[in-house]
Amino acid sequence: MTSQQDALRKRWKAYHRASEAVMLAWLAAGMPSGQLSVLPLPDELRGLRCGAKTRAGTPCKRRDLYASGRCRLHGGLSTGPKRT
Fold this sequence. Notes:
This protein is mainly alpha-helical. It has one domain. 31% of the residues lie in helices and 0% in strands. It is built from 1 helix and no strands. The N and C termini lie far apart (33 Å).
């Protein structure tokens, strides 16, 4: 992965931390969650791809990312050891 992608992924994580802080402050103030004002997503983060390596060795092309910056296929918890 390039250093540019690393920097974008760090900005993605920082954006999600800031969004979560805004949401928690909003809810702590007793405001209804349906009227939550959200932070706008920066333009350079739009279309950011997962970037993890697939089994075929190519970069993952999914764009539905979690706060971790990875897709649901590459960013989840481990399923455990393959052998016992």
